[in-house]
Amino acid sequence: MMSESDPIPPVIPQTGEHSGQRQRPILSVYTSSSPDAERSRIEVDGKVKSTHGRVLAVYDHHRSGERINLDAVPGLVDESMLAMTDELAASGLDTDFVVSAVVVRMGGKDKVNERDLRILEAASEWCDLLVSDETDQLIKDAGLSLHFHMKNRGFSRMKELCEQKGELNPLNSRPTPSDETMTQIANELADELEKSIRGDRLEEGMQAQDYLAKKDSTCESWTERNVRNDELLALTIAEKGEYFDPLFITELVKGKLRIDAVRQGPDEDGRELFHYVIGLVPAFNEELDLRLLIEKMNEADPVVQIQIQQGIEEANFRGWGGRSVAFGSPHGIRSALRPEEVAQIIEENIHLCKK
Fold first, then answer.
1. Which member of 145, 247, 270, 335 lies 3.0 to 4.6 Å from 329 by CB, making a disulfide possible if both were Cys?
2. CATH domain 214-353 topology
3. Where are the domains of the chain?
4. What is the pLDDT of residues 3-21, one digit of tens each?
C-alpha cells in the first residue's frame, strides 16, 4: 500500500507525439460542449453527444445495464490503452462518475483493496438512490458519508467558481456552471479521492458526519412540502432553491414512485415551468420499467412538442430522459407539465410498465 505522501504515478504512453512522461488522463464533463478532435477518451457514466475525438472504450452502465457505473468498470483496465487515453469523459458530474473514473485511472477494480472498493460501491449506490446491499453497517455508512462529502464539496466549489467566473443566471444569480467549470470540479474531487485511496485514508479523510446530523430537520421540511403520499406515489412541490436530500427521506417513500417537482417560474409565454425528478425508491425493481413513462411525458409536454414541430436537431434536442428506474424533465429548459398532470400520466400508464 502506498503512503499518503507518495506521488500519484503518471500514465506513460508507449508511442506517439506525446511519448515520454505525461499527466494521467483527466476527467472531462461534456453536457453541451464537444471534445477536442485530437483527444482520445474512455467514456465513463454517460454517452458524450459528439463524434469528435477517438473513443477507446466505454464503461457506462446506462448502456450496459449494471445497477451502478462502478459495476461496468473491469477488474483490470488495459494498461496500454490507458496510457494512450487523454480523458475519462462523462455527460454529467456526480459521485458515481468520479468514483468510476478514479478506479479506471488506477487500473481497474482489482487495484483497489476490498474494503475501500466496498465503500466506493456503497457511495455509488447512494448516489443513484439505490438501497445498498452492503451488509457491514460501518462500510455502508462510510459510503453514504463519502457520497455526502463529494456532493457537498462539489456544490460548494460550483458556487465559488461560478461567482469567480461570472457564470450566473442574470435573472436570479443562480450558478450556471460551464463544462469547463464542471471539469475542474471533477478533477479536484478525483484527485482528493485517489489520494485518500492510495493513502489508506478513505474512511477518515473524505467523510461528512456533520451533514448527517441534518436528517431530522430535512425530513420535517420535506413533509411540509408533500402534497401526496399514498401507496403508488409520493409527490412534493418545492420552491426554486429548496432542496431535500433524497437520501434523508428514503424511509418516508420506500416502495413508492417518488416525484420531486420544483417550481422554475414562468416562460416567455407565461406558462409555469417545473423541474422534475421521478424515480423508484429503492431505485431497483424487478417488476417495473419506467421507460414507457418517459415516452408519455414527451408526448404530453408542450416544451418537447414545440421542439419536434420546429425540427430541432438531435444534438440540441431536450426531452424527458432517464433509465428504467428513474427519469426527469428536459435538461436546461424544464417542463410545462403541472405536477397533477404528471401524476395523472403516471396513474394512467403505470400498469403498462410492468415487466
1. 335
2. Diaminopimelate Epimerase; Chain A, domain 1 (3.10.310)
3. 26-211, 214-353
4. 434 444 444 333 333 334 4
